[in-house]
Amino acid sequence: MKHFNLTIKLLCIVVSALLILSLSACGGSESESVSTSPEAGNSSEEPTTVAEDSNDITQFIEPQIEDDGTDGTYLSDTLYLYNNVAYNIFGSNEATAKNYSESVNSIADSVGDNVKVYNIVIPNHTEFGLPPRLADETGCTSQAENIKTIMENLNSRVQPINCYNALSTHNDEYIYFATDHHWTSLGAYYGYEAFCEQTNQTPLDITVLNKNTITGFTGSFYTLTDSPTLYENSDTVAYYDLPNNTSAVMKESMDSEPLEVDVYYPAPESGSLTYSLFCWGDTAQFVISSDAGTGKKIAVIKDSYGNAFAPYLTANYDEVHLLDFRYFTLNLNDYLIENGIEEVIILNNTMSANTPSQVATMVNNLS
Question: How many helices and strands (H and E) does the chain possess?
């Protein structure tokens, strides 16, 4: 028990540090293609507006965003505060989007022909919360156009999944946090639902699941800025009891001993680490077993957005292998063969997908 408690304490410290480091990486730097400057792209580009029942995943539903005419304030070079919500300032260009596509293609080409590879790029809150007027003033570029470019440059080995439209049509719901850079468990559910619909699977029904909540979450944006406004407008983290019996084995790093754990951290608390209750935060390897009885296994190559997404997959797969490419360093093809896995999701939010150093880490660590 002492060893287990010590492991938990160490994990919390590691996760806290990684949240800050990961967010700094996501914000980019002058040497990266993600930037806060208008030169990163044309912020006036508008996504294509289509009917909600469109089957064309390369068409994007324009989000409806209220604009009360007020201005926000900068919390930092990369964070903007508007109506008590913090937003990452997103900027990218075609070359950076294509670089991500080429990297995903190379991963897909490195695995066996029997493996089905999916790619999901998740837009962040800025695309759905910051009015176009302010997005233009802050130099943000269109994430819809960015994701569309990524999709168009994936090769035939990769099936793109559009979760943008699902998030856009639910934009009036609590799908992103105000004080943190992640989507909520509800946002992750809509991403999961889109994945199921586009892969001919039946998603679990979240409306029949028991909902648990933890108030007082002050996430990564608050941690980075100490903004009193964000502290006073803390978030609520919800998580849902899963319909199947599940268990998990976690490796914090590739050198650590495996630990048998629950899918959710069993004693989550208010504060800066509440999001880490999903699959125990960012660990190198987190394998969930389920009694779904489908005979299927899937690997999710992911950044931290995948932590809230993966639990839902336990309704469709007997094993879900959550592999954080920042810390998982085994050859991917060998791992898939050894574990009998024939489906892979490569999942990143737009900030990760448009940070070349992060993308290079993904490719290099999986080789």
Answer: 13, 13
Predicted confidence band at 29 (pLDDT cuts at 50, 70, 90)? Answer: very low
Considering Cα of 267, then 324, then 313, then 165, what sign does the dihedral take? positive
- Does the pLDDT at position 5 exceed 90? no
CB 85 within 8 A of CB 148: no
What is the predicted pLDDT for the residue at 198?
98
**Rounded Cα–Cα distance for residues 143 and 3 (Å):** 44
CB 147 within 8 A of CB 122: no
- Indicate the helix (H) or strand (E) that contains 147: helix 143-152
Residue whose tokens read 């951290």: 265
From the number of C-beta atoms within 10 Å of its C-beta (0-12, 13-18, 19+), residue 169 rates as middle
CA distances from 25 to 279, 300, 345, 354 (A): 22, 21, 22, 10
pLDDT band at 72 (very low <50, low <70, confident <90, very high): very high
Tell me: the pLDDT tens digits for 176-187?
Answer: 999 999 999 999
3-state SS, residue 216: strand
